[in-house]
Amino acid sequence: MARCFDFAKLRFAMLNTNGFVYLAALRMEIFTLHRGTSPLFVSLPHDGTALPEDIAARMTEGARRVPDTDWHVSRLYAFAREISASIIVPKYSRYVVDLNRPPDDVSLYPGQNTTGLCPIVQFSGEKIYLPGQEPTPDEIARRVGKYWRPYHHALAAEIARIKAAHGRVVLWEGHSIRSVVPFLFEGRLPDFNLGTANGASCSPEMQRCLADVLETQRDYSFLVNGRFKGGYITRHYGDPANGVDAIQLELAQCNYMDEDSFAYDETKAPRVQAVIRRLLLATSSNS
Ligand SMILES: [Zn+2]
């Protein structure tokens, strides 16, 4: 993926309080950030597939295929640039560090199976690491500093920039997952799963407006605040009273790809993209 920064953006990075971390992250290409001109900001924290060599060498063969990636979401959301959205996409896999978990690794779903900050099991329940090779607490802290914090510094800085420019921000968390994952949920997941932290991360009007879009189509099933209520990013940055509406969309992968081979389905994908596009456009009509 091409680097999206220009010198003006670098100057902006140097001006923000976390400039050094931010610039270091740029040099390492930990993420790419495209800055748009609208209030919409799309974050795709599980799109990354890269594994540093030293970490990959300690993983099982199956885990090195990074099966729990939100496959192809940056391709699905590529059109968001055409509607002037900002987009941030990480390079590294959630197996390195999960950007959508809190840095203290408190469970997002107490009492239910979930995966952690530096997961050691796959969604299949199989191990990620070879025996005795799991990351230690010190290594987890290093990964948070090297990969997690730069992504979040960039998220916070871009939210602040958009809010200063427009007075409001719509933070859209784009995710996808296999439609059947017994380790995490029973049965088959609905196609579109909107999460707003049970209504805490966005205004009631915004949630209503998005639900209306899904209610007026017949191709896909949907649920609002069902099994997936929004992860750490949605819950942490969503602040509707202060002009930040955050929404997570967890999409069932069977709608745009082959869940076994991970191949993108060019026949199915445009139909699902059309509904995502209507959702994103609805966020701008609601203010
Ligand atoms: Zn995800």
Short structural summary:
With 287 residues, the protein is α/β, with parallel strands linked by helices. Helices cover 32% and strands 13% of the residues.
Count of DSSP strands = 7
- Which structural class best describes the helix and strand composition? alpha/beta
**Quaternary organisation of the protein chains:** single chain
Low-confidence blocks of residues: 1-21
Total of domains: 1
| Relevant CATH superfamily | Zn-dependent exopeptidases
Q: Main beta sheet: strand number and arrangement?
A: 7 strands, mixed
Mean pLDDT: 90
CATH architecture name = 3-Layer(aba) Sandwich
Strand content: 5-15%
Summarize the amount of helix as a percent range: 25-40%
Spatial gap, N to C terminus:
33 Å
What does this structure look like?
- The protein has a single domain (7-285), classed as 3-Layer(aba) Sandwich (Aminopeptidase).
- It contains eight helices and seven strands, in the order H-H-E-E-H-H-E-H-E-E-H-E-H-E-H.
- By secondary structure, it is α/β, with parallel strands linked by helices.
- A seven-stranded mixed beta sheet has the order 1-3-2-4-7-5-6, with helices on both faces.
- Residues 1-21 have low confidence and may be disordered.
- Helix content is 32%, strand content 13%.
- Zinc ion (ZN) binds at residues 46, 70, 175.
